[in-house]
From TrEMBL:
Subcellular location: Membrane
PANTHER family assigned: INTEGRAL MEMBRANE PROTEIN-RELATED, PTH11-LIKE INTEGRAL MEMBRANE PROTEIN (AFU_ORTHOLOGUE AFUA_5G11245)
Lineage: Eukaryota, Fungi, Dikarya, Ascomycota, Pezizomycotina
GO cellular component, one term: membrane
Membrane-topology descriptor: Multi-pass membrane protein
Protein name (database record): Rhodopsin domain-containing protein
Keyword Hydrolase: no
Length: 291
């Protein structure tokens, strides 16, 4: 099987309960979580732009462009999560998922992974560009931040290309799950376990430097930042550490989905932590603009 999944042994399938397609055990709260997070980030992004327009939080800049992209893509990613959970069986155990939902679930899952990559990288670049404003007179730190931005951009391009070549041909990633109409073309996929762990670890590393690099700058240099704003920034750094924690949890479920045959149930948890990481990062990026 392609991507993050593997063939389920017949002995394991035989041990599963009888499929329940009528009233299975479900976790139906993911859409509620997604809608709450979308509403919260929408409010904060709108507030950020409002403060910019009133000239009370600095002028519009490139960081605002990136956060707008991150927010728009996060909304699409949240919609993908809702579709997978509510319509494609991700809210139930694998043995209770109708066979004709498998292809759609795999396709929507692949789309959601790409959307999350775009949103998170755009948010990290936005955060780094914002802090570049604060250190515009400190040459060494400017170079450090530009290096971090370049690393994020390279990470984005590399992982995006990897997603596009996750399987060859790419459509085998989802079409090979069609158990009703078996996929007959020859296909080859990269090692899902190694790939998932790699992107998870790299994402957490980039989360950490996006948080701790600006924090180090703030503490080592007497920047012209009002005390109230300095306290606010330190709070944001703490929230950023929580976002990195969500990234660590997501990495764990990326690993677990490769070592667990109940992929839909584990995939639900993976989506939850992905939503928390994606929207949490946007919240942290917008919070400094609020007064």
């Amino acid at each position: 099987m392609p991507g993050n999944f593997h063939e389920v042994p017949a002995s394991v399938v035989a041990s599963w309960p009888k499929p329940n397609y009528v009233d299975p055990v479900r976790r139906a709260w993911l859409p509620i979580l997604a809608l709450f997070l979308v509403a919260l980030t929408t409010l904060l992004v709108a507030g950020r732009f409002y403060m910019r327009a009133k000239k009370e939080a600095g002028a519009f800049g490139l960081d605002d462009v990136f956060i707008a992209i991150a927010w728009a893509v996060a909304v699409l990613m949240s919609a993908s999560a809702c579709i997978d959970a509510d319509q494609k069986g991700l809210d139930r155990h694998t043995w209770d998922v109708p066979l004709d939902d498998y292809v759609g679930a795999a396709l929507v899952g692949w789309i959601a992974q790409v959307l999350m990559l775009i949103s998170c990288c755009a948010t990290k670049i936005s955060v780094l560009l914002f802090h570049r404003r604060l250190v515009k007179d400190i040459g060494n730190w400017i170079w450090a931040i530009w290096f971090a931005i370049a690393f994020t951009a390279c990470y984005f391009v590399a992982i995006l290309i990897s997603y596009c070549f996750l399987c060859r041909p790419l459509d085998s990633y989802w079409l090979s799950y069609d158990l009703l109409h078996p996929y007959t073309r020859h296909y080859k996929c990269i090692d899902g376990t190694a790939f998932s762990l790699s992107i998870g670890v790299l994402s957490v590393v980039s989360d950490l430097y996006a948080v701790f690099l600006p924090m180090i700058v703030l503490r080592k240099h007497d920047l012209d930042v009002p005390r109230r704003q300095r306290i606010g920034l330190n709070i944001i750094f703490g929230l950023g550490a929580l976002v990195a924690g969500a990234g660590i949890a997501r990495t764990y479920y990326l690993w677990k989905i490769n070592h667990n045959y109940d992929t839909s149930w584990t995939g639900f948890d993976l989506f939850v932590w992905s939503l928390l990481e994606t929207h949490g990062a946007i919240i942290c990026a917008c919070a400094p603009s609020m007064r």
